[in-house]
Design goal:
Length: 121
């Protein structure tokens, strides 16, 4: 049987490099072999929360209240098993003007991360 890996990627922050923008830009990935057993658990949690009166369309860590986030993280921790989480954190104030274009920014960030991972593995 093949060894498949599923990668879920999310970004945080924004591409506003002015003082009004976020301080950091992050890319975080979760890698897991066959992660589908968690979906029904999260569905049940979502409906349990709706039935208690919480208006919840979907889970979103940056917008949900802390008690909701705690329940989601507990469900993941208790049922997900082995997984790999990688984060790339860029302090945007250290990016020169030449890297502030999204295409160049992403490419340079990923290239830099790949070089760093060669030294840590």
């Amino acid at each position: 049987m093949n060894s498949y890996r599923y990668i879920f990627l999310d970004e945080g922050g924004n591409f506003d490099f002015t003082p009004k923008g976020t301080r950091f830009f992050t890319l975080t990935s979760v890698t897991k072999a066959r992660p589908f057993q968690i979906a029904p658990v999260l569905d049940h949690l979502k409906y349990d929360l709706i039935e208690t009166g919480l208006d919840l369309e979907y889970f979103h860590a940056s917008e949900d209240r802390q008690p909701v986030r705690d329940q989601v993280f507990t469900a993941i921790r208790d049922r997900f098993g082995a997984l790999r989480i990688d984060s790339l954190i860029v302090e945007k104030s250290k990016c020169g003007p030449a890297l502030r274009d999204e295409t160049k920014f992403y490419r340079r960030a990923v290239e830099t991360q790949n070089l760093a991972s060669l030294h840590t593995e």
